[in-house]
Amino acid sequence: MAATKPILKKGLFALILVAIAVSFYYLTIWVTPYYVQKKFAEKSLGVINTPQFGDQPNDENSRVIPLPNPDFLYSTINYDLKDDVLKISGIVPDSTYWSISAYQENTTNFFVENEEKVKAKFEYYLAPEGSTSEVLKNISKEKIIYSPTTKGLILFRYLVSKAYPVKTLTELQHGVTVEKLGR
Fold first, then answer.
1. By the 8 A CB rule, do 125 and 136 touch?
2. CB within 8 A of 35, min separation 6: which ones?
3. Are 90 and 121 in contact (CB under 8 A)?
4. By the 8 A CB rule, do 98 and 72 touch?
5. Is 135:84 a contact under the CB 8 Å cutoff?
6. Residues paired with 52 in a beta bridge
7. Where do the DSSP E strands lie in 48-163?
8. Which one of 41, 49, 59, 96 has the fewest beta carbons within 10 angstroms of its own beta carbon?
9. CA 128 – CA 145 distance, rounded (Å)
10. What is the rounded distance in angstroms from the CA atom of residue 130 to the CA atom of residue 148?
11. pLDDT tens-place values along the chain, 183 residues long
12. Is 36 helix (H, G, I), strand (E, B) or coil?
């Protein structure tokens, strides 16, 4: 009987250790996306429902850390739909890659469109899921983006190419507008 006590103690210790490790693992998976989004929002200086523009691509001799893909121009809109439905509009370049993506507060993607589907101009209405706003009554369903959360992020990507150099794309990028339409 005396020999089984150390084995029981070791087994109990191992079981507690596994329980702590599993708890930490799941807690990390659940908390990390919210932490990332919060840090991104802080970096945006609290600018809500307004386009923000990423740095321009670095030249090859630059000592600056490159963007995720240095061939792209990025812009974002940190949104809060608590008080408003948002109208987001702009111009789509016709011969280079362009995309719009929407992410909820925990960084889960729920909407993506690109230049293949959207031609010339885009106009979307961002509203909370289940919204019955009067503003949306006469809007085509294809133009309405329903967000599962009231806070999140819209991400635009523009591919720099020979047809669209940085200067031209920057003008298109800065032409994106966000209008607060109310409830």
1. yes
2. none
3. yes
4. no
5. no
6. 76
7. 51-53, 72-80, 86-91, 98-104, 109-114, 121-128, 144-147, 151-159
8. 59
9. 8
10. 9
11. 555 567 667 778 888 989 999 988 888 888 887 777 777 666 656 678 888 887 665 555 555 555 567 778 888 888 988 888 999 999 988 888 889 999 988 788 999 998 888 888 899 999 998 888 888 898 889 899 999 998 888 999 988 888 777 888 888 888 999 998 877
12. helix
And the tokens for 107?
């960084």
Amino acid found at 28? T
Residue 149 · residue 104 · CB < 8 Å: yes
d(CA 173, CA 166): 10
158, exposed or middle or buried, with CB in 10 Å at 0-12, 13-18, 19+?
Answer: buried
Burial category of 91 from C-beta neighbours within 10 Å (exposed 0-12, middle 13-18, buried 19 and up): middle
How distant is the alpha carbon of residue 14 from its chain centre? Answer: 40
CA distances from residue 179 to 43, 59, 77, 87, 135 in whole angstroms, order as listed: 22, 34, 12, 5, 12
